[in-house]
Design brief:
- By secondary structure, this protein is an alpha+beta fold.
- It contains 18 helices and eight strands.
- It has a domain of about 140 residues: Glutaredoxin, CATH 3.40.30.10.
C-alpha cells in the first residue's frame, strides 16, 4: 500500500496530491502513481490537477482514435473553463496526425473552434492592445492550422492563411515580426498551388519574388524550393521563358533541383548557342542579385553597431577556474549566452564552432560561452556530447541582468576597450551567419 493511503482521506487536498505525485514521479513508482491519478480524478474531477493528468494521458496514448476519444471527453468536461483553447489545441494536434481516421467536417469545425478560442484569448489580454507575445501565439496557431490542413483541405488551408495574413497586416507594428508576413504569404501561395489555381498562385508567388529581391535572406523561406514551385506554376501557365529562368535559379540555389531544371530544359529545348547565352546571362543576373543582397545585409548589420561600456564579470569555467572580462583586455571578445535546452542555441553553436576553429590562432580575438543553465551538471555532459572545444563559463546571478540578456541565444561582440559593439538575440540560419560575424569583428577592430 502506498504511503499516501495512510493519510486520512479528508486530509488529501489538491495541494497534497500535487506534491505527492511529484515525489512518486521522481521515485519512479509507476504503479503507485497510476493509483494516485485515479483517486485524484475521482475525488477532484473538475480540478486543474485532474485536467492536467487527463491531458497527459491523452497526449501519451499511442492509439489515435483512443487519444481523440480521451481528448473529446476533456473538452466536454472543461470546455467552459478558462484555457479551453489549449484542449482544442491538443485535440487538433491528435486528429491531424492522421486525418483519414476522422470525419472531414469534424476536422474543419475543430480547426475553426481552436482558432476562434485562441482569438478570444488574445482579445481578453488586449488592454488596450494585445501583448506582442500573445499576438505571435495567435499567428503561430493560425499558421499551424493552415499548414496541417493544406494537403487534405487546401481551400480551408487557404482561408486560414488569408485570415492570418490580414490580421498581421492590420495589427503588427514590430519589425521583428515580419517573418510572419512571409510565412503567411508562403502559406497562401502553397494553398493555391495545392488547389492548382495557377493564376492566383502566380499572383501570390510574385509577392514573394518581390520580397526576396528587396530584403535580406531569412530562414523562414526556403528560396530554392520556392523558386522551383514558382517555376512549376509558370510552366502550367505556359510562361515558358520565365519558368525556365526560375527553374535554373532554383538549381543555382540548391543542387538538388538541378535534375528538374535539366528535365525542363529537355522538355523545352533551346539551341546550343541560345542555351549558352541564357545560362550566362542568368548566372550574371543572379550573381548581381546576391552581391546586392549581401551589401544590404552588411549595411543593415552595421547600422546596429553600439558603443556601450561592458560590465565586468567574474565567472567560473568548467574546471572551476575564475575568468573575468579583464582577462580579455586588448582583444575582441565574442561572448555568447546559451543553454543546453535551447534548440536555436545548438544551431548557433555549430556555426560558432567553425568560427572558433578559424580564429583559434588569432591572438587578437577570444571567445567565451556563458551557460545560463540552472542545472549546471548538464553543461559538461552536453559539451562532451557535442564536442564543444571552446571555453565555457557558468553564469552567475548578475551577468544576465548586467548584459540585458532576456533570452538565449544572445551574442555580443566586445572590443578591446571593453565596449559592447554589437548585441544580437536569436539565431537566423540564413546562410550568412559566419560572414556577419566576420563583419562585426572587423567593425569592432576599428
Amino acid at each position: 500500500m502506498g504511503f499516501y493511503k495512510k493519510v486520512p482521506l479528508d486530509e488529501r487536498t489538491e495541494k497534497f496530491y500535487e506534491r505527492y505525485q511529484i515525489v512518486l514521479r521522481d521515485l519512479k513508482r509507476i504503479s503507485e502513481m497510476a493509483d494516485l491519478k485515479k483517486e485524484i480524478v475521482q475525488k477532484f474531477p473538475r480540478s486543474r490537477l485532474a485536467a492536467s493528468l487527463r491531458v497527459t494521458e491523452a497526449r501519451n496514448e499511442k492509439d489515435i482514435l483512443r487519444a481523440a476519444e480521451l481528448s473529446e471527453k476533456l473538452i466536454k468536461d472543461f470546455e467552459n473553463e478558462k484555457g479551453s483553447n489549449e484542449l482544442y489545441e491538443i485535440y487538433f494536434s491528435i486528429i491531424s496526425k492522421d486525418f483519414s481516421k476522422f470525419n472531414g467536417q469534424k476536422i474543419i469545425s475543430t480547426a475553426k473552434k481552436y482558432e476562434e478560442l485562441k482569438f478570444e484569448a488574445l482579445m481578453e489580454e488586449s488592454k488596450p492592445k494585445a501583448p506582442r507575445v500573445t499576438q505571435y501565439r495567435y499567428l503561430q496557431t493560425v499558421l499551424d492550422i493552415s499548414d496541417k490542413l493544406r494537403e487534405k483541405f487546401p481551400a480551408e488551408s487557404l482561408r486560414f492563411a488569408q485570415k492570418g495574413l490580414a490580421f498581421f497586416e492590420q495589427t503588427a507594428t514590430d519589425e521583428n515580426a515580419n517573418g510572419f508576413k512571409i510565412l503567411f504569404r508562403q502559406a497562401v501561395f502553397r494553398s493555391y498551388l495545392t488547389l492548382k489555381d495557377w493564376k492566383n498562385a502566380q499572383k501570390a508567388g510574385l509577392e514573394i519574388v518581390k520580397w526576396t529581391e528587396n530584403s535580406t535572406p531569412d530562414e523562414s523561406i526556403d528560396e530554392a524550393k520556392f523558386q522551383r514551385d514558382y517555376a512549376f506554376v509558370l510552366k502550367n501557365l505556359k510562361q515558358i521563358p520565365l519558368a525556365r529562368e526560375h527553374f535554373f535559379i532554383a538549381s543555382l540555389l540548391n543542387n538538388e533541383f538541378q535534375k528538374e531544371s535539366k528535365n525542363f530544359a529537355s522538355e523545352y529545348p533551346l539551341s546550343p548557342s541560345v542555351k549558352a547565352n541564357f545560362e550566362k546571362s542568368t548566372r550574371a543576373k543572379f550573381g548581381k542579385f546576391l552581391a546586392s543582397r549581401e551589401a544590404l545585409l552588411k549595411a543593415n548589420l552595421l547600422k546596429t553597431e553600439l558603443n556601450i561600456a561592458a560590465s565586468n564579470f567574474r565567472l567560473q569555467d568548467l574546471n572551476g577556474k575564475e575568468v573575468s572580462l579583464e582577462d580579455y583586455k586588448g582583444r575582441i571578445l565574442i561572448l555568447n549566452f546559451w543553454a543546453t535546452w535551447c534548440v536555436p542555441c545548438i544551431g548557433e553553436l555549430e556555426q560558432l564552432k567553425i568560427a572558433y576553429k578559424k580564429y583559434e590562432g588569432n591572438s587578437k580575438i577570444a571567445f567565451a560561452f556563458v551557460s545560463t543553465d540552472e542545472k549546471k551538471e548538464k553543461v559538461p555532459i552536453e559539451a562532451k556530447k557535442r564536442n564543444y572545444q571552446f571555453p565555457i563559463l557558468y553564469a552567475d546571478e548578475k551577468i544576465e541582468g548586467d548584459y540585458k540578456v532576456d533570452s538565449v541565444p544572445t551574442l555580443l561582440i566586445i572590443d578591446g576597450q571593453r565596449n559592447i559593439r554589437f548585441q544580437k538575440t536569436g539565431f537566423n540560419n540564413n546562410g550568412y551567419y559566419l560572414k556577419e560575424l566576420d563583419w562585426m569583428i572587423e567593425a569592432a577592430m576599428k
